[in-house]
Write a structure and sequence with these properties.
The protein is an alpha/beta fold. 29% of the residues lie in helices and 25% in strands. It folds into two domains: 175 residues, Rossmann fold (3-Layer(aba) Sandwich), CATH 3.40.50; 47 residues, no CATH class. α1 packs parallel to α4. It is globular and about 50 Å long. The model has no long low-confidence stretch (mean pLDDT 96).
């Protein structure tokens, strides 16, 4: 069994401000540590099932987690290669399932004060076939493109509820609930414990089915600034829908990934 873990920071226990997610700010070190501990708990549970575990650092610089906090045997993918799989860079058909740790709700959601889609200062909304998607949902589609199902998710309560509605039986751990610019979080040690137990329970329950991808894709990216929309509308095949939105249509999900890589 081979498991791919993609880890973000805006959905870990206790985080509530952008200053806590940015490397140049003192508060960041603590939450990078929490990101490491939550992901390490997932990896440790997976290793107990004799799984091969690959961890993808998927936040900001992609150089956040502290490898010395992980059990021996885990492999890491750090920094950005430029591959359009982005937060899922490294996943392929050889993996049995994927896990997402520390994930967050989509831009515009009130479920997390750090809710965003890819670049927080750039993107107002990402839509696929008319539905506003989170990074988690889009990354689940990337995994599905390679035949890999989502096994486990941790992050804010809004995202967990949304994904459980899309994937019946999905095991999740909700770390926080957002209200305006604040959040109410479970204790960080409780989050680590629940993630370990949740991954263990998910693996005991068995590997779920892969979600079905649509046959056609209409992707819309709505920007916060009209000038950003104009500049990115020159991507081959893209069209401006209005002053802040570009649209792109294809039947190949890999082309969707490539489009998002260049316009987001």
């Amino acid at each position: 069994m081979k498991l791919f873990i993609s880890s973000d920071i805006e959905g870990v226990a206790g985080i509530s401000s952008w200053e806590e997610a940015r490397k140049e700010v003192a508060d960041y070190e603590y939450f990078a540590g929490q990101m490491s501990l939550e992901t390490a708990a997932a990896a440790e549970a997976a290793l107990r099932f004799s799984a091969e575990v690959v961890v993808r650092d998927a936040h900001g610089t992609a150089r956040n987690m502290k490898p010395d906090l992980f059990p021996e045997g885990v492999e890491f993918i750090r920094n950005w290669s430029g591959d359009p799989r982005r937060m899922m860079d490294g996943i392929d058909e050889s993996f049995t399932a994927c896990l997402m740790i520390g994930y967050h709700s989509e831009a515009g959601s009130g479920a997390n004060p750090l809710a965003h889609s890819y670049r927080s200062g750039l993107i107002y909304a990402l839509r696929v076939n008319g539905e506003v998607l989170s990074e988690c949902e889009f990354n689940t589609m990337i995994a599905a493109y390679y035949g890999v199902p989502l096994l486990f998710l941790s992050g804010d309560e809004g995202l967990c509820h949304k994904m459980m509605g899309k994937i019946p039986g999905l095991t999740t751990v909700a770390t926080s609930v957002g209200t305006g610019a604040s959040s109410r979080s479970i204790h960080p040690k409780t989050a680590v414990k629940r993630i370990f137990e949740g991954v263990e329970a998910a693996l005991q329950a068995g590997i779920p089915d892969v979600i079905a991808l649509p046959e056609e894709f209409r992707v819309e990216v709505e920007y916060k600034d009209h000038s950003e929309c104009y500049a990115r509308s020159f991507y081959p095949g893209a069209k401006r829908k209005d002053s802040r939105t570009i649209a792109y249509e294809t039947k190949d999900f890999y082309e969707v990934m490539r489009f998002i890589q260049f316009v987001c």
